């Protein structure tokens, strides 16, 4: 029977099914037509700041998911998207709507708490009404790169920030629908965003490179000492072991500090390549394409990141092998010391055994001597009897071997019984 909360035709979906379906429709493109100005930012901030951003939008703004917001700020359309480690903020300003593009950054600073965010990417994209207007908007004396997207949309940029820190793109698309133009512009903005995010690992790689070089140099010196001091003392080996483990700890700290950043750079680089390939850029005249220019710059940077990461892993492996080798040598030296100690103990045991045997022999003689002395009183009285044909001295002399044998046999039995009881 159906319940009030679950009708007869309901399916038992996975707990994350709704999130999986929503991810398919995540980050939709915004239809846009020219002429227009688009401002795109990639920022780092906390959840409270994002909520404050959204609260500043006009009435009617919607939150389309746990990570997506959209609305308007007067004549400007605003889209917020929360990513894994940054939030993207895109403002669409169509110029027919009676507003100057220069007022958009001022409006953003006025209405949004920009002092609470860290800006990673800052882009201004102009959708021009003609090809000459597109080129005019990039005037600045810098070299221009670009081409045609799918042989229909012209795009240009110098990739040089202006005095406000913005990187300017210019696009001209003739006879393009707002939906198609919006999709291509989104790919272009994502390409630049992921390019910048992938390069965040480069300064880290350069900073830790010097530390890795110092660790490699010190490891080479310690390895040379390890090879030359094959017959070194236990104290020297232990000091070398402590220094190697300290070096390994230092490298592991570097690995921990850089692992996420390097892995994120690889992931962003993969997304960058996907976006730049999806643009399907074609060369126009003698202008170098954006894809060719960006690949020639970003690939060496990624090679540096990959090289630094591999150096860390190689250094960690080399340290592990050196530590294992030295640990084995220390254990062998300890085993040799234990063997010498056991041999010394065996020698002392043999000495103690010989001493105890000597003492045992002397003890038999001493006990026999005192036993004969005691027996002499009895033998003296016995010899005084008329029926005894032997003298006192003869009886005493005859008792000596008998008493000696009795003492010897008794002590042997006592020792055997003690040895059997002792584990």
Protein architecture, described:
The chain is 59% helix and 15% strand. It is α+β, with helices and mostly antiparallel strands. It folds into 3 domains: 27-178, no CATH class; 201-340; 344-421, no CATH class. The protein has a 10-stranded mixed beta sheet with strand order 2-3-4-5-1-6-9-8-7-10. Helix 6 packs parallel to helix 8, helix 7 runs antiparallel to helix 8 and helix 8 (290-383) runs antiparallel to helix 9. The model has no long low-confidence stretch (mean pLDDT 82).
N→C terminal distance = 78 Å
Largest sheet: 10 strands, mixed
- Judged by helices, strands and strand pairing, the structural class is alpha+beta
Mean pLDDT: 82
The assembly state of the depicted protein chains is single chain
Q: Which band does the percent of strand residues land in?
A: 5-15%
Order of helices and strands: HEHEEEEHEHEEEHHHEHH
Please give the count of helices: 9
Q: What is the rounded Rg?
A: 46 Å
Tell me the number of strands.
10
Which residues sit in consecutive blocks of at least 5 with pLDDT less than 50?
A: none
The proportion of residues forming helix, as a percent range, comes to 55-70%
List keywords for this structure.
423 residues; 15% strand; alpha+beta; 9 helices; 10 strands; 3 domains; ten-stranded mixed sheet
